[in-house]
Amino acid sequence: MTQTSDQNQALTTYDYSQLFNGNYKVITGTYTNSSGSEVDLTEGMIIGRVHASSLLAILASASSDGSQIPLGINLTAATVANGASATITIAVTGRLNEDKIVFDGTDTLETVVDSRQLRDRIPADTAGIELESFTELVNYENS
Amino acid sequence: MANIPAVQARKFFTTALANTFQDFIEAPSFLTSFAKIKTYTTKTVQLLARRGTEKIAVDVIRGSKGNLNQMTRFSLKEYLPPFYKEKVAVHGMQIYDIPFESGESYSSAQIEAWAMATAVELSESKKKIDRAIELQMAQLFLTGIVEVTNGDNIDYNRNASMIEVLAGADLWDASGVDIIKFFEDKGLLLRSIGKVAGGQDVDCFMDMTAWQSFRANEQIKDGENFYTKTALEFKDSPIFSSTGASYKATLKVGIYNYDIWVYDEVYDNASDVSTKYWDAGYVCLVPKSFRAEISFCQVPELPAWVRQSPRSSRVFSSLNQKMTGFRLFDYVNEEDEVYNAGVKAAPLAQMISVDRCYTAKVLETGAEVG
Predict the structure, then answer these.
(1) Fewer C-beta within 10 Å: chain A N or C terminus?
(2) Residues from chain A contacting residue B71 (CB–CB below 8 Å)
(3) What is the CATH number of domain B159-290+354-361?
């Protein structure tokens, strides 16, 4: 939802599109922020797992600690301070609206990780996430 | 007892008031007639908008899951209309000053005349607001921005492609200009941006200067693409029964039929300068599927038990005015010997289908031509 307003008029836009088309299976895990600054976790972020610690981490294709492999999609919106931990819920199965995926940094669905695009890794590496493309039939009013 | 001056008394016997003339000028309603009129019991009014697309299905492989569609976006707009409050001093009306009356009591004829004078002044006050509404509609068609003096302007954010300033060889008074092509091309804009289905009738109104260039054009003069509608063909169109514009003919070119109107109404601005509602040299194309509304919202009001107090109101508090766009009011201040009556309203020309109209400045200057 975005909102603009002044004395005589206000405009609010709504987007009720869903992250998943139907139900999905979830798991929980611990995310620890060791980035050096505050991190905003948002719904739709792709999450991987650090092999050595079993902690959850935001997928980063350039990593080599395991977090470059997709595990699931984040469902928990939270702000995590540097050095702090949070328990987050991620979806590991379901029909995912690919337009709602939120990447960190410059990664895209076309980014290659170990000779395979993330578009192909997400269905293959997760427990069962299927990417679906939605066609939006309506638009917002002029703003 | 006061004496009546001899000069005044002599006039009574030596001259007669033969006739009276007073202008009661109607407020134009042509532009307002493009909108529905609705009254709300709230201070603000909202509009839920969802713009359409024209996507087309593509065949899929048999056995596949098919294409997934969704309609999940919309915009919610909220508007606070400008507020108008016009009042008259009933206590100051000249009906008090009829000579040869004692002042101790008033005859029924005097009271009737007083009431009539109040009604006339209130009616003229209401016309001021009617004209403000007509001007709001003009601003809506001209720029899409309703100008508010005390508050922020209300901007409907019309698509920039739907408001154009023509130049050079495209101007309607340029040598050899193809005005027919203007209607064909701008019709395509209404189709692509305004999403107006082809084959509709489109109202086209212009001021006098644009009309003079239009009728002087060689292609227009041959009359080949014109026909004239009868009153029956307009059916119950509020536009046809409105005041202020004159229907000329219907132009059949391109994907629409254009009903040509000339509208050159004026109002007196705050400096008493006669001003056009619709700017000189401008043309507007408005398809029948255009949607607008004059939304009357509620106005500041005292609770009924206060209004019905004998000292606060004499007449209008007893009227049931809950769902009227124009609210009549009156009040008495006995200490100051003031009795005021007035009319107040909070109307807004609300553009519902924002891009379903096209505006063009077709002349470089607004000077009269031809």
Answers:
(1) N
(2) 136-138
(3) 3.30.1930.10
